[in-house]
Design goal:
heterodimer, A: 117 residues, 54% strand, B: 0% helix
Amino acid sequence: GAVVSQHPSRVICKSGTSVKIECRSLDFQATTMFWYRQFPKQSLMLMATSNEGSKATYEQGVEKDKFLINHASLTLSTLTVASAHPEDSSFYICSARAVDRETTEAFFGQGTRLTVV
Amino acid sequence: DQQVKQNSPSLSVQEGRISILNCDYTNSMFDYFLWYKKYPAEGPTFLISISSIKDKNEDGRFTVFLNKSAKHLSLHIVPSQPGDSAVYFCAASAQTGRRALTFGSGTRLQVQP
């Protein structure tokens, strides 16, 4: 299946700093990438939908100034958690959809565990 | 408002027997359904999907059944193997999968040797 690489897999940062998470589609071009967040023992919650070359669409309740998304190319989307605080600690996962497929299984990255201390 | 529900948080099955994981949805716009397997601290791995034009899709040991009138789908794993032990998420999408996925809360499957 298609490969989506997410980096870093784990990051610990101090409160007030910003953290950037990268999501790359390695063997296909992705028109659309999605960013999810998962709290312990809970489901994956969609944060935003990112389309290449345009602004991301955020879900209700997600602060766009806190979670900055950039989808500059068909193979890369980045999520920056600005001025991170302990409540931002979570597991963040991206997924990507291929350009040439009408439907897709939306391949997922391996996730990033963010801990803000 | 949970649009995709997995009411069983956990399931334990003997090796070799059938595992049945259930999922209910409320949004009638959903027309594409998927099952994912997930280990802790990893991203979900796609297992099997089904379009709303079908009522069954089979892939090896995995079969997904869709009952549109009941807004219910299930994943059957037979025979179950210890390596199947993981959290299974049901997901749904509108516009034949072109929209973002909405996930259920997951069911932890434990297959006992």
